[in-house]
Fold each of these.
Amino acid sequence: MCLDAQVNILLVMETHTPTRQEAFELFCRYNSNESLIKHALAVEAVMRHMARKHGEEEEKWGIIGLVHDLDWERFPDEHCRKSPELLREAGWPDEYVHAVASHGWGICSDVEPVSVLEKTLYAVDELTGLVVTSALVRPSKSIMDMEAGSVKKKWKDKRFAAGVNREVIEKGAALLGVDLTQLITDTILGMRTVAREIGLEGNP
Ligand SMILES: [Fe+2]
Ligand SMILES: [Fe+2]
């Protein structure tokens, strides 16, 4: 192997702290579906809100939220298993890789959420979907004036947002030791910061 090739391999293997721009470009390289991109932005915004609330590293939390479904569009049968491979190839640190893999714990991954960051991602991922559907059935179609009660009202109606696994959200809240209403409120507050980008600003 020539020296150039060796240097290239070393460069690929070496980990670095990813930037938000790098994360978004990587996500868009593997995903083009508009609702999936909106979902990524919603989860990023909630993770940023949660990080600010807990005095944690907002950039790291946001970036992990942004890329958590990296493998979803191209590798649906390998969801949560392909992303770690892609992130490692891109030189992302273990902490980021582990967190992304853990969001599908018990569903498509056996990687358990351990850190507060991971438990938060696990808890809010599905919840953002329920918040979106709850907002869209309101007359205002807006998240800006929506409270946790609108989401809780739909909690037991299994036909409403049928794809959203309420048990995972409840398990996530329990892992975090937070009350469900508080978790929903924080998720709404986070999503409000990107209401325009995710189409939940309401009627003009
Ligand atoms: Fe996922
Ligand atoms: Fe997701």
Amino acid sequence: MLDKAPNGKVSDLLNALDKALSAGEVERTVDLFQTDCYWRDLVTFTWNIKTMEGKEQVRDMLKARLADTRPSNWKIADGEDASEADGITESWIQFETEAARGFGHMRLKDGRIWTLLTTMSELKGHEERLGFDRPMGAKHGAERNRTTWKEDREAEARELGYSRQPYCVIVGGGQGGIALAARLRQLNVPTIIVEKNERPGDSWRKRYKSLCLHDPVWYDHLPYLPFPRNWPVFSPKDKIGDWLEMYTKVMELNYWGSTECKKATYDENSREWTVVVQRDGKEIVLKPKQLVLATGMSAKPNMPKFEGMDIFKGDQHHSSQHPGPDKYKNSKAVVIGSNNSAHDICAALWEAGADVTMVQRSSTHVVRSDSLMELGLAALYSEQAVQAGMTTAKADLIFASLPYKILHEFQIPVYNAIRERDADYYKRLEKAGFLLDYGDDDSGLFMKYLRRGSGYYIDVGASELVANGSIKLKSGVDVKKLTEHSVILSDGTELPADLVVYATGYGSMNGWAADLISKEVADKVGKVWGLGSNTTKDPGPWEGEQRNMWKPTQQEGLWFHGGNLHQSRHYSQFLSLQLKARMEGIPTPVYGLQNVHHLS
Ligand SMILES: Cc1cc2nc3c(=O)[nH]c(=O)nc-3n(C[C@H](O)[C@H](O)[C@H](O)COP(=O)(O)OP(=O)(O)OC[C@H]3O[C@@H](n4cnc5c(N)ncnc54)[C@H](O)[C@@H]3O)c2cc1C
């Protein structure tokens, strides 16, 4: 029989929360929280993406935001039951605010709130037309001079950006821009995506030939339109490109391909952007209220500068420009770097018959794809999870409910288990000279991704080639200089080279703001990405959330969107609601706007 006790505990707590909040009693509300509590809010109370850590921060936020948030109707979410394990009672919850309906998740410890996640599902009066409310499509009846769906779409394409201005311009039509535009379309926010490539999906198509997604299909769905059940676990890059192109079309997005954003300036008086774009050779000026840079966090190449690059006679390029191995079958190739791109490119060059050396300057975290899938992702994103009733939306919310401050504590045991399981494998890699790490605090891949977005390889085969010497390795060294036909390393080794690939990663997204807007605006908003964890490449102070992503920045009307497919899917919901609220003139007082501590 179902144990009702957890439901009772959660309901009692939610009733008390409801009463205290409705009465505007901050202290009584704060009393319902544990001392070491976390309240992560995605837009409902804070109009921000913000984690309150500890009672003091919860109190401060409520003092600032309770009066006009006017939350009510807290209850266990419809159709859900609370559950209990290891002294933690947890439940899906729902609630309302003055402006919106919310969904969330709560964990109780000793009868008090330990973690609370509150997320905005929809704005009241601006609900998406879904299910029972889906559009009719056909216009039944008889009407003179009626227009068809196709004619309406053609008229929109003719007018938007010319005789009628979009409310929002998204620069960058990769998966991030596309997912956000799909949500904005459903919310009736007139939007244009500006993309310098010709077709949606080109940012994947143009990457090196051998690339397949490193994340599995369950993690990668786009909003509204999940991949079909026969979709491969790891999408080949051109296949994901085609999916994005199809998605853009069927989701009716206003996608301006072959269009480059040249310049954007913000007028603080009219609170409007002037965005100059070049479309098919013609300059067009757009005047949106909101500008989203979805220009890619793995898109602004970090190109090193080494002495002798100007005299090197072979081919040299950043990994983002690497065409694939076909041209280099019998070449001597040197790949600088030891993360994902470096490994993929080395393996493809080796497969083609090239003589390949990887140059590893500092340690890298490597994790076998199988182990990551089974121990890292399977509980939320796997076929087993799907069969056990897990939905993508719930998986995303469970993930979101784990506060960043303690996320590493959940990750360390996972990576300890992986290290134990794959001990021989790691030993062989070390024996080959490969410098391994597991993150500064042994918390592994996902924390590295959130903190610095780099420093790892998800092994899909190249590590065996490193371990058995097929890919030659020079580790613990840097490049000293290039000569006409070789790379000289800091230990004096000379590597003859016909090809040098710089797999040296990507820069912060505010570099895009500097390029397109101004250095002043880029500095005003500061570094993009990272948590302030005070670990390598993620300097403190602690921020509690990802810097500048999906939330208001220090520059009014400027937003950053992107990340992996999971993040693009999940956070596009909250960014689209923030934009919609502004378009509708709903007050959006931002609580806890992030301060800037680092410029890049
Ligand atoms: C080798 C590699 C493997 C990866 N594997 C995975 C994976 O398995 N799973 C995953 O989720 N992510 C993966 N990523 C991360 C990947 O970069 C992102 O998930 C994805 O590309 C991000 O999408 P995006 O839309 O944010 O950016 P992008 O896909 O980089 O798109 C940005 C777009 O902005 C356009 N643009 C830039 N400037 C302008 C301008 N001025 N005017 C007009 N257009 C402009 C660019 O042309 C580009 O199309 C990988 C990245 C790399 C490099």
